[in-house]
Every structure is written in C-alpha cells, then in structure tokens.
Amino acid sequence: MTSLSPAKTGSKAFPWLISLFGVGHLAFVAAMGKLRWEHAAADLLLVGLAWAGPAPRRFLRGAFPLYLTGLLLDTQWLWLGLRGRIHTGDLWDLELALFAAPGNTTWPAYFETRTHAVLDFFCGFSYAAYLYEVFALALLYFFRKHPRFEVMCWAFMLCNAIGVVTYIVYPAAPPWYVMQYGPGPADLAAAPSQAGTARFDALLGIRYFANFYARNPNVFGAMPSLHAAYPVLVVWQAWGLGRAWRVGTIAFAALVAFSAIYLQHHYILDVVAGVVVALVACSAVEYAFARRESSAVTPVPLVPGGDSRA
C-alpha cells in the first residue's frame, strides 16, 4: 500500500509537496465556486502540520488518508453524472420480502409512526457521534504511538472509497425518499432530508442535522450505509484494547445500526452491506500492511484489532 514513508516525510521537499497539494485544492474549489471555510481550515491545517516539525509530520503521515477521504466525500458532485440507473423502489420491495415489519411494511416505515423521545435522543446522538468515534480512536492511537494509527486511517479511507464506488454503480434511494416521493422514476431535484433526525434537532432546539444534510450532494447514496460501517470499523480496530473496548464499541455499533433504520435513513439491507464494507476494508488493509512489513520482526497481524507490537 502506498503511503508517505518516514524518509519522505522527513525530506526537505515534503513540506513543499504538501503545500502545493493544499494550495492546489483550495484553488480548485475556488475556481469551481465551491469554496467554504472548511476547505480553507483543512488545507491550512494540512500545510501547517507539514511545516511544524517532526512530530506533526509523523501525525500527517498517518492521518493523510483522512484528509484524502474528506476530499473524496466533498467532491461527490464531480461524479454524480457517472451514476447508473437510480433505484428507488427496488430495495423497498426486497426489504419487504426479506424483513417485513408488522403490517406488511418495511421497518423504517413502521418506526415512522412509532417514535419515542428517549429513542429520538439516543438514536440521534449516536447518528451524530458515529464519525467522532472514529477520530477519537485514531487520536488515541496516535498519542500512544501505536502502529494501528496508520492502519486505521487507511482502512477508513478504503471503507469510504468502496462506498463511493457503490454509490456510482448502484445509486439507491433511502427509505425516507420512497416514503415521500414514491417508488417511481427518481426525482433528481429532490432535496436532502433529515428524516427522523429532525426530531433530535427539535428535541434539543438545535440545527445540527439540518445543517449536516443540507450539504449532502447525493440523495441517492443509501446503499451501503457508511453510518453502519464506521462503528464496525472501530470495533475491528479497537479489538486488541481489551474486553471493555469490545463490549462498548459493539454496543455503539448496534445502536447506530438500529438508529439508521429507526430514523428512516437506511434499510436493514443497507446496514448489512455497510457491515460487509467495513470488514472487507479492514481485512484488505491488514493484509496490505502485513505484506509491506513482511520483512520486519513484528508485522501487523491479520486479526481484528491485533497489536503489531511484541
């Protein structure tokens, strides 16, 4: 697997190469009329880390896949025209055939009329925290100087790359879309929806999910569920930290999986696909790192959350 090697990150050319990358990205989004303050903040942080010294450059070496993931997701508008036929009612029908809820409907539709403030709070919280859990574990590994830091960052990027490719090959409408627009031809003008997460915003009097989904350029990216994939990736990466971590991360992953369905953003099929994507991404990156380190004394093992240190 290609990465920024210690020799490269320590070279005099490295800060200049990273600076060129960051400035080039800023120039690109500005030229496309897509520039936001987050772009400037991310690129300035990127360049700053490259020039700040050995320790920040070590962080940048491992975390660079996270930056690339941000670029991948932020530039979805570039490839929307490459999508195949958009599937609206296909998944609804398959979900109904495999996992019918009482009343012969899908579980997302079932929960739409069976909500509770306690579920709204905990499901909304987990749906907001799923990304921060990834970053928190990555930072923990960095500050512990744990070799799994870089492994986790690359697995996260691959997980998202698989998701994006699937969105192009099999663009699919989420449950809330079918419930609102029906299973007919896709309405490309359909606006992103908070769906059930609107109840979390209303409960706390905030606009977190309203702002989050307002920036979503791809309404038809429901299969697989990356919301379900990220916590499963964390389970894998944290497995070697002990029983408490295993129980905690598995419980959180289960809550996010349920929340995806309860909040009408995903089907059970989307969640299962997200779990598979996370497992495939982690396995592939473990294998790649094991091959890269095959000549070392302590290679990264091909086991969930394994510790490569003796």
From TrEMBL:
<feature type="transmembrane region" description="Helical">
    <location>
        <begin position="154"/>
        <end position="173"/>
    </location>
</feature>
<keyword id="KW-1133">Transmembrane helix</keyword>
<dbReference type="InterPro" id="IPR052185">
    <property type="entry name" value="IPC_Synthase-Related"/>
</dbReference>
<feature type="transmembrane region" description="Helical">
    <location>
        <begin position="117"/>
        <end position="142"/>
    </location>
</feature>
<feature type="transmembrane region" description="Helical">
    <location>
        <begin position="268"/>
        <end position="289"/>
    </location>
</feature>
<dbReference type="InterPro" id="IPR036938">
    <property type="entry name" value="PAP2/HPO_sf"/>
</dbReference>
<protein>
    <submittedName>
        <fullName>Phosphatase PAP2 family protein</fullName>
    </submittedName>
</protein>
<feature type="transmembrane region" description="Helical">
    <location>
        <begin position="13"/>
        <end position="33"/>
    </location>
</feature>
<keyword id="KW-0812">Transmembrane</keyword>
<keyword id="KW-0472">Membrane</keyword>
<dbReference type="Pfam" id="PF14378">
    <property type="entry name" value="PAP2_3"/>
</dbReference>
<dbReference type="InterPro" id="IPR026841">
    <property type="entry name" value="Aur1/Ipt1"/>
</dbReference>
<feature type="transmembrane region" description="Helical">
    <location>
        <begin position="244"/>
        <end position="262"/>
    </location>
</feature>
<feature type="domain" description="Inositolphosphotransferase Aur1/Ipt1">
    <location>
        <begin position="107"/>
        <end position="282"/>
    </location>
</feature>
<feature type="transmembrane region" description="Helical">
    <location>
        <begin position="219"/>
        <end position="239"/>
    </location>
</feature>
